[in-house]
Amino acid sequence: MSSAPTAERRAGGPARPDAPPRRRTVREFLQRHWFGYAMVLPVVLVLAVLVVLPLLQGVYFSLTDINDTTIANPVLDRPARYEWVGLANYLDVLSGDPAYGAFWATLGRTLIWTFACVFLHYALGLGLAVLLNRQVRGRGVYRVLLILPWAVPVFISAFAWKYLFNSEYGLINWLLELVGLPGQVWLGQSWLALASVIAVNVWLGVPFMMVALLGGLQNIPGELYEAAEIDGANAWQRFTGVTLPGLRSVSGTVVLLGVIWTFNMFPVIYLMTGNNPNTRILVTYAFERFFSGATRDYAIASTYGVLILSVLLVFATVHRRAMRRQGEEL
Amino acid sequence: MRSRATAAATAAALACLLAGCGSSAGGDPGTVVYWDTSGAGESAVFTEIAQECGRTGGYAVDVQTVAFDQALNNFKTAAQGGQGPDVLRADVGWVAQLAQAGLIQDLSGTPLADTADFLPEPVESTRYDGKPYAVPQVTDTLALLYNERALAEAGVEPPRTWADLQRIAPALGGDRAMFLNNDAFYALPFLYAEGGDLVDTATRTITVDSPESVRGLGIAKDLIDSGAARTALDQTNSYSIMKAAFTSGEVAMVLDGPWVIPELSQSELFADGQNLGIAPVPGPGGPIGGHDYVLRQGSDATANAIEFVECMSSTANQAAIAERLGLLPTRRSAYDEPAVAGHPVVSAFRPLVENTLPRAWIPEGNELLEPLKTAYAQVLAGHADAGTALDRTAGIYHETVLDGYARR
C-alpha cells in the first residue's frame, strides 16, 4: 500500500519493533479513514450493481446463443436452455457477413457518421462561440435562440426534420425546386440518407459545443490578446496562437464526449430512417438484432455491444495519449 | 403493418421499456386487462364494446391502448416478467412466435377452441403445432382502391392484371395511374403475381429468390420504369405520401386495406366513401392480414378473460364492429346480419378475403417482412435488380431468420 508510510508518519513516532509494522499501519489507516470508505461504499455498490454486473453479464451473453426462446423464464417455470458457444458470435460478426450486419462496412459508416458530425459540431460551435464572445447587442437573445435545438426533445426534432425531408411534399425540396434545382430523395436508398441524418445531428449538437467552447473562451485572459496585438499579431494569428491553445483542455474533453455520444447516437437515425441499410451504424444494428428478430437475438446484440465498447475504449486511449503528448491531462 | 412506424410511439415505447412497462392490474382475477392495438379511428369502438362485455359479464375490463408497432415488443417484455395484459389483440403474424415462446395460452379444451363458425383462413393463423392459441378478431387483405370518377373520365375499367395496368396507364396520365407503397406487405401481391412466395413450409425451403418471385417483384419495377405507376423512394414517408396523393386526386389507384377507408373517407374527394371503388388486387390475389385475440400465459384472470374473448368475438359484436368500422368479421354468421350484408366496404371486401393467398404461419413469419422491405426499396430505387436483392434477402433469411430452412 503506497499510502502506508504517509499514514505511519501522520500517526507519529516510529513503529514498535515487537509488532509487525504492516498490520499495525493498516489498522491505523482504517481507524483514521474508515469514515471516508463507509461514505463511498454505497456508491461503489450501486455502480457495481448498475454498471459492472450488467456489463459482465453482457460479455457473458455474447459468448452464448441466448435468445428469446432459450432464456430462463421463472414465471413460466422454464429453465434456461442457452449454451456456451465460445467465440462463435464474434467470428460471425467479424467475418463481415451481411447476415450479421456487414460489420466492417457498418463500422466504416459509423466512423464517417461520428467524425463528420463531431467535426462539424466543433467547427460550427467554435465559430458561433467566437461570434458570441464579444459585445454584441442582443447577445442574450442570440444565445437563447442558438440553444433552442438542444432544448427541443430529440424525437420531436427528428419528426419535424422527417417532414422537411419528405421527397414529395417536403419544404426542402420545395425550396430547391423554387430556385430551379431538382428535388432529391433525401431519406431513400442512397448516401443522401446518411448526409441527411448527419445534417440533422449537426443541427442538434452544435448548441452544446457552442456553450462549452464559449465557457472556455471566457476563461482566456484578455491580457494575452492585448500582448499578442502589441506584438503585431493579426486576427488570424491571435486565433491560432491564443484562442486555440487556450481552448485546448475544453476542446479535448468536449471532443471526447462528442465522439462517444455520436458513436452511440440512436434516436436521430432510427426515428428518421428506420432500418435503412444506408444509415445503419453499429448501435442501430444492435437494436435491430435485439428487437426485430422472431426470437430476440440477445447474443448477437450483446456481441455488438461489446465490440462498440471496445472501439470506444481504443479511441479513448488514443485520444488520451494524444492529449497527454500535448501536455494536457484529462 | 397497419399503423406506420410513428416516431412518437417509438420514443414513448422506448421510455416505456426502460421504465419496465406493462404494469397490469396486479393479478386481480376480477379485472381483465385488454391491450387494444387498433388505430386511432377504431379504438373508441373497440373500447366501448369491451366495456359493455364487462358490464354484462360481471367483471371489470381495463382497456389500454398500445401503439401497434410497439405492442409485440412490449408484450414480450412484459410477459417474460409475468406482467402485461390478460388479453392482447395480436396481429395474425405474431401468434405463432408468441406460442413458440410460451407466452400465450393453449386454448384446447376451452370454449374458445370451437371454431366451426369461423372462416378457415383466419383460423389457420391461430394454430401452432396443431393446437389453437388464438381467436380471430378481424380479417383483411389488400385491395385495389380506385378513384371511380377518374377511371370513368378516362373510360377505363379497373385493371385485372398488371399488364392491364400498363395498357390503361396512358389514359390516366401515365404514372398518375397508380401509387405503389414502398413497404414489404405491399410488395407481397407482386411477389405472388407469378406464383412466387417467401417460403415453402411444406419442404422447408426459402423461395423468396425463386425465379417466380424475382419475376413478380420485377413487375413492380417495370411499372415504375415504364411510367405506369409511381412510388416514393423515401420509404419512411412512403405511406403518408401515398395517402396524400390518392386523396388529392393526384393518383387514381392505390393498393391498401379496409383499415385505411375511414381515413380516406375524411377527405373531400372520398367524403363518406363516395367515389371510392374497391376491386381485387391485379393478379392472383393479395396477402391475408388481420388480428386475433390471445390470452397471456400466467394471467390470473384467465376465467374472465375467456368469457371476455367469447363476448368480443360473438356474432353480434363482430357485426357491430363491421357495421361501425367497416372491418371484416371472421365469423360466417356475422356476414348474414343485415347491417353487415348491406355495408358497402364489407361487401366489397368479402369476396377478396375469400380469395387471399395463404401466408406461412410460422414463428418467423412476421420477421420475414423486414428484410423484404429493404430489398423492395432497393429494387424500386434501381440500386439492385430484383434477382440480386432477393438473393440477398434469401441469404438473410437463411442465416438469421429461418433456422433449418434450406436455400433453393
TrEMBL record, chain A:
It holds the Pfam family BPD_transp_1. It is found in: Cell membrane. Residues 107-319 form the ABC transmembrane type-1 domain. The keyword Hydrolase does not apply. Residues 1-16 have a biased composition (Low complexity). Keywords: Cell membrane, Membrane, Transmembrane, Transmembrane helix, Transport. Residues 1-22 are annotated as: Disordered. It is a multi-pass membrane protein. The chain crosses the membrane at residues 34-56, 111-132, 144-164, 191-214, 254-273, 298-318. Coiled coil: none annotated. Belongs to the binding-protein-dependent transport system permease family. This is Carbohydrate ABC transporter permease. It comes from Saccharopolyspora cebuensis.
UniProtKB/TrEMBL annotation, chain B:
Keywords: Signal, Sugar transport, Transport. The keyword Transferase does not apply. The keyword Transport applies. Residues 1-25 form the signal peptide. Belongs to the bacterial solute-binding protein 1 family. This is Extracellular solute-binding protein.
